[in-house]
Design goal:
This protein is of the alpha/beta class and 237 residues long. It has six helices and ten strands, in the order E-H-E-E-E-H-E-E-E-H-E-H-E-H-E-H. The chain has a five-stranded mixed β-barrel with strand order 5-9-8-6-10.
């Protein structure tokens, strides 16, 4: 049976989904509250992991070990790295990599984690297709598929933004996706990362982010609910 783990870093990224869940139960683990129940007819576990890579990876491992999830989706907001991506647009991960992982002096390509066989962690093709279709229903013509870049930094500086683009060729930047992807990859769990653009990841980010945070997070939650519905339909087919 399909069981979808849904992770958001902040309350605003999960509150809409929590309000739509049925038969909801709570379980606290490692400082986070995991909500198990039904969303769009599908068995799900929703958790607010907190900001940053360590918090994100910790929650993925708990979802795998303690809740037996079969699929993972990370929903949230991000800063745009692409001139064609405006505030409110949606990004679905083709793959995800770190923009702040640097072992170049040890002979590794920029962003590659020693011991991993990939630099960027690939999203599951089926989940990607479902997520793209869901995003197009929510915001037609405003969805891109591509690379998402993650690091433990809120990017609000044009020079830093340009360095991240040069290193990763990412469409957007955020603070959890690559850690979630790496942990899912190591556990053999199919995943996809969804992001709605909340700011331009440059000198305007500190002004734009508070204004558009809730709008972007709500849009991503709509996509996640639609994705859950597609997984349920596939399960029943």
């Amino acid at each position: 049976m399909t069981k979808l783990g849904i992770i958001g870093a902040m309350q605003v990224e999960v509150e809409t989904l929590l309000g739509q869940m049925e038969n909801k139960t709570e379980r606290k683990k490692a400082g986070s509250t995991f909500y198990e129940g039904i969303l769009a007819g599908l068995s799900v576990v929703v958790v607010q992991c907190g900001v940053g890579k360590v918090n994100a990876a910790l929650c993925v491992q708990i979802l795998c070990d303690c809740f037996g999830v079969t699929h993972l989706v990370n929903t949230g907001i991000a800063g745009s790295l692409c001139a064609d991506l405006d505030i409110g647009d949606l990004v679905v991960s083709q793959d995800v990599m770190y923009h702040d992982f640097d072992c170049v002096n040890f002979g590794y390509p920029y962003g590659k984690v020693p011991g991993m066989d990939v630099i960027a962690f690939p999203a599951d093709e089926t989940l990607l297709a479902y997520a793209f279709a869901a995003a197009e229903r929510v915001n037609p013509g405003h969805t891109r598929v591509g690379r998402i870049a993650s690091g433990d930094q809120f990017v609000a500086d044009k020079a830093l933004k340009e360095r991240i683009i040069a290193h990763t060729q990412g469409l957007c930047t955020e603070m959890e996706g690559a850690a979630i992807a790496q942990t899912a990859y190591r556990n053999g769990i199919p995943f996809v990362i969804l992001r709605a653009i909340s700011d331009k990841a440059d000198d305007s980010a500190e002004m734009d982010y508070p204004t558009f945070e809730r709008i972007a997070a709500h849009r991503c939650a709509q996509v996640t609910q639609s994705l859950a519905r597609q997984l349920k339909e596939a399960e029943e087919a």
